[in-house]
Amino acid sequence: MTESTPNDDRRAGHAQASRPHGADLPHGADLPHGHGPGDHPAIERLHAELAAARRGIGHVEVMSPAHRDRVVAAIRSELPDAAGRTAHEVGGAATMAEILHFSGVDPARPAPSRAALRLWDAILTDVVEAIGAVR
Asked: How far is 68 from 108, CA to CA, in rounded Å?
């Protein structure tokens, strides 16, 4: 009988079921021993950043204009930076796969407004450009 680790349940399907794109790492990607493609720390950090940004975009319309401008500016500068760092660490293909996971509407949340969708599209465009700049 083999001893299981806390991450075995995640590798057995829990994380992959919720994030199917993590398996798109190119052959030869340098991952730390014991990590699957979806478990790479850089992908995990990017996933957390994207999730927080997507939640934040849904709330910008109810913020005061000054606060909204600061939040949008922070997201538009920090998220592309995070994506660029991730692409540098694990490669553009794996990073794009994670971005694609967040490109649609979150079905677990109320439908966003058209303005929020346009903003999210602009942010993702910035993110894709940052990934493309990594060589």
From this structure: 23
For the entire predicted model, the pTM comes to 0.66
For residues 119 and 57, the answer to whether their CB atoms sit within 8 Å is: yes
Which residues have a Cβ under 8 Å from the Cβ of 15 and sit 6 or more positions away? 22, 38, 39
What DSSP state is assigned to residue 58? T
**pLDDT, one tens digit for every residue, the chain (135 residues):** 444 444 333 333 333 333 333 333 333 344 333 444 457 899 999 999 999 998 888 888 889 999 999 999 999 999 999 999 999 999 999 999 999 988 876 667 777 788 888 999 999 999 999 999 987
